[in-house]
Amino acid sequence: MSASADVGEVRDFVELLKPRVMSLVVLSGVAGLLAAPGTLHPVLACVAVLCILGGAGASGAINMWYDRDIDAVMRRTQQRPVVTGRVQPAEALAFGVTLALFSVMLMGLAVNWAAASLLAIAILFYVFVYTAWLKRRTPQNIVIGGAAGAFPPMIGWMAVTGTVDLGAIALFALIFLWTPPHFWALSLYTDIDYSNAGVPMLPVVAGRQATKKQMFLYTLLLLPLAPAPYLMGFAGPGYGLVALAMGALFVVSAARVLKDESRMQKAAKQMFGFSILYLYLLLAVLIVDATAGQIV
Q1: Could you tell me how far CA 140 lies from the centroid of its own chain?
Q2: How many domains is the chain built from?
Q3: Over the stretch 116-153, which tens digit does the pLDDT of each residue have?
Q4: Residue 156 CA from chain centroid, whole number
Q5: Is residue 291 a part of any domain in this protein?
Q6: What is the tens place of the pLDDT at every residue in 28-52?
Q7: Which of 70, 65, 67 is nearest to 16 (CA)?
Q8: Which of 4, 20, 280, 285 has the highest CB neighbour number within 10 Å of its CB?
Q9: Which residues have C-beta within 8 Å of that of residue 2, sequence separation ≥ 6?
Q10: Is residue 32 part of a domain?
Q11: Which domain range does residue 187 map to?
């Protein structure tokens, strides 16, 4: 086998991990770890982040194995490795399960078993509750299933403290409430794909206008929640100001979507991009704030 073929195969397995999703998972896990009261040895902190990364990647690989039938129908996912045959389904499943077991065991042995248990719950929730149960059965799939993506900051927090308290719950709630408007913005302009695949996303089942109203409501709920880390005392005023400003812009973005009646749903595409920036920026500022506080 040539070197280029080897590189291509490695790239295919990396793609199974959903690296773009993993980057946000890592950022949220680091935010929870640094914002938590107490400290963790830098080596153990790196191990904890690696385990969170591995758990997220494992979930993505198993998701691609399970969803290969509907991925083949949707234009956005037709080039995924399992769909195209670059990775065989059994290989994807074995890779995901092995990575999941390794990540949980390493977290337990190196950091603590409380964080490892929560990591295991997050993986199982994503695979069995969201992917296998909710995704194809209910338009609330993203609402309930979004909990899986909200676990990483709690896991990072628990890696330091061994417990879950109100600070960790606040970070969980932030991502939990962010997830529906983020994914519904995507589904507004890819609703035909979801309809063809038989996935009951909210725009497919309830219509675009009802979805837009729900999105607007979630951004209103996020507006007072996002500054909670500042109000609870584990983030500084800089974070609080950024959270309020970005929250207001998120509401404005949702309002624009609500008024957009065009077929192309340009406002929804813009909101989808902004929603990623929104969460990345809040987590980045929280990390900088927590790091500066530890240095001082």
Answers
A1: 16
A2: 1
A3: 999 999 999 999 999 999 999 999 999 988 899 999 99
A4: 14
A5: yes
A6: 999 999 999 999 999 999 999 999 9
A7: 65
A8: 285
A9: none
A10: yes
A11: 11-295
